[in-house]
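Task: fold both queries, return tokens.
Query 1:
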Amino acid sequence: MDKRGLDISVYNENVLSSDAAWQAIKNSQFSDFIILRRGYGVNAIEDERYKEWYERAQSIGIKDISSYYFSYATSPEEAAYEAEQYAQMTKDDGLALDAVILDFEDNAKWQRYGYNPSPAQATAHCKAFLDVLKKHGLNCALYANQCTLMDIIDWKSLDCAVWNAAYSQEDQIRAWMFQYTDSQYIGNYGPFDANVMYG
């Protein structure tokens, strides 16, 4: 059976500052799972709300909790370094996570340094990151948008779960999970990124 859930970060803090917002999530169809940003970048900057929201999600009965890390790396070597820090953060937290996820998408650092990876470079970037997570015995996954997955990353070679993102389109990957909107409202609360996890 398919499940539905949200992915959130500190950028949602204005919406998620009240108990009422969390209660609305609990009573919605999006309470099957939640995915929290753990951090981002080569300098391992932590999401300020991660631990608080892990506890909040547990308090409303969400047991399926995962985290993701937004890669700013501009080489496979930097990607592996980021992943080591992510793995250490995860171990230091001591939290029970369903999956740890590489978020691979365009960002300001890539634009600043002119990093526009070829298919081979993009796949090597993801492999370096994910191989570190696997080495640490973590259940890992890859997040990217549909165009990137179809035209750039050889995701089938990476041997991991895949979380595809495409808004107002059909899921042409049909892997582990699909992020289909960034404009989901739950009552008066939102907008949220909404996802379906295939059963």
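Query 1 returned. Query 2:
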Amino acid sequence: MNLRRVSPVVAIAFVVIAALIIIPFCTSVTFATELFTIATLLEVVLLFNILIIVHELGHFLAAKWCGLKIDKFAIWFGKPLWMKKIDGVEYILGSIPGGGYVALPQMAPMEAIEGKTDTPKEDLPPASPWHKIIVAFAGPLFSFGLAIVFACIVWAVGKPVTYTETTTVIGYVDPTGPAAKAGLQPGDRILSIEGHHITRFIGIGDDAVNWSIITSTVTPIAVEVDRDGTNQTFQVSPVRQDHSFWQRATPRLIRIGPAEKALIVKEVLPNSPAVAAGIVPGDQFLELDGKKLYSSMTIEKYVEEHATAPMNVKILHQGIERQVTLKPEIPISPKGVKDAYLGIGWDVAVEIAHPSPSEQVIGSVEMVLNTLAALFASHSNVSASQLSGPIGIMNIFFAVLSSPDGWRLALWLAVVINVNLALLNLFPFPILDGGHILLSVIEWIRRRPLSMSILEPLQTACALLLISYMVYITFFDVQDSGKMAMNFGGGEIKFAPKPTSP
């Protein structure tokens, strides 16, 4: 999506989020959590604006190089905090941190979004089609260049990769879901889905488990697995979760989760059921009620379904296998919590990979193309409501930066977003950069530009269409922001003190 053209919508949505979500959220958490949240939010806004401003800088420098008239170069929107005219160009710093724009009166009219230009179009000599193409292409080119810069940084500092992303082993199967009904079990290693060879669990592409299921167009789908050295094929019918008309459409799922490398305890909370059972950091969970464990999700779902009922687990404690009984407990903090917990934090197996810049950029291009192919494919189950707009991208950045090693993931995500911004802007849709290029090619073939009586209504209609779609996507993105605010940093879990023996 063209983030630049809809920045006013982004700015308004940002203010709404701050007023309705972030402020109430900050009043319900500790001061330290509030500071962390605000700092993370500022990092997100900074990174988000860098992506847009570099894109606009490409248009600005190309227009300078081609000798086109530049009325304004604005960073941010809203009432100007600072403005100065230099060599006929008005430089503006707005008050709402939502991107920016370059006003070029010799390009196709953009008054529907950027307002009237200071210089009447008829008072300027027309720009050549090639100059217009260069200026329009420069924005995506700069975004692509910034993606390469970020990719080089990621290559140097590394990108965190969890075991659950790369494994193809099933770790959890919902007992009531389609996979369980079809016969799939934890421990099965997925080989192919509908004939596509599988190499990872998470990601975008036909070689990823989740993506192959989400984009599948037939029912049932054939899932080939390796079970104890024997290849077996199961016919699984994906389902969608019911949702209201105002909620984002859910993808097709078979309700399985990836296996973890090992269920090793990283921390135990004071006074928790884990402490009462003698669990210490470093212990490894092996079995639950006699069944081998592949994922911590199995334990979490068991506690969710059985509340405070005792559970029997086999653990590996200091090299010795032992049976222990855990009795989940409802904590005394945060207030209002009704779910039971064990008080265990799991150690996540993470490796720092160093993918080459070309590998990252090519992978990002494939992500964009695969997403578009799934969106426009016949009988596709991927809908427009499942995509993310600027607010959704900010949500993702916020979640990423809030996680361990989040800054590394944010750098990698910046590669993906910049490639996304570059490619989608080249889509030949009026008001996008690709639309400007298309109109310039038509002008070059006709040897004269399209009539303004045609061009202005076309640009205005396309602008309204794009803004309407952005409002539609933002409606769902703001809902996600609310869910994040309610689930993030809700308070430290504390258990009631236990009496001690003399």
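Both queries returned. Flag for query 2: The domain at 163-259 is CATH 2.30.42.10 (Pdz3 Domain).
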